């Protein structure tokens, strides 16, 4: 057996690294694409909610706590994927760092700004 090739009589494991491109079932690809675009829309909405919260940030404690909590929990899901399936691309590792490190720091910063006013 070499590298990732299955032993004689084994069924090859699916290549999870290929994501949406794996498989040829058009129905599956449509479902995955739909889900991917839905989640991308949610991320856009989170970004807009953050951006519109900057004016008057000292009064937006609840908004930043809620948004930060959502992003942090998403990062925990990404971390679970890393631990159970394997290391993703460098871009996804950067996103993981943003979700689990930068986001909590952003919340702490907002709380500091609110206290200073």
Layout of strands and helices, then pairs:
Layout: H1 26-52, H2 61-85, H3 90-116
Major sheet summary line:
none
Principal-axes shape call: elongated
- Return the structural class: mainly alpha
The percent range for strand residues is: under 5%
Q: Total helix count? A: 3
Parts with pLDDT < 50 across at least 5 consecutive residues: none
Indicate the radius of gyration in whole angstroms.
20 Å
Number of strands: 0
| Helix percent band | 55-70%
Quote the average pLDDT. 86
The succession of helices and strands, N to C, reads: HHH
Beginning-to-end CA distance, first to last residue: 66 Å
Identify the notable features of this structure and list them briefly.
117 residues, 68% helix, elongated
What does this structure look like?
The protein is mainly α and 117 residues long. It has a domain at 47-117. Helices cover 68% and strands 0% of the residues. The protein contains 3 helices and no strands. The chain has helices spanning 26-52, 61-85, 90-116. The model has no long low-confidence stretch (mean pLDDT 86).
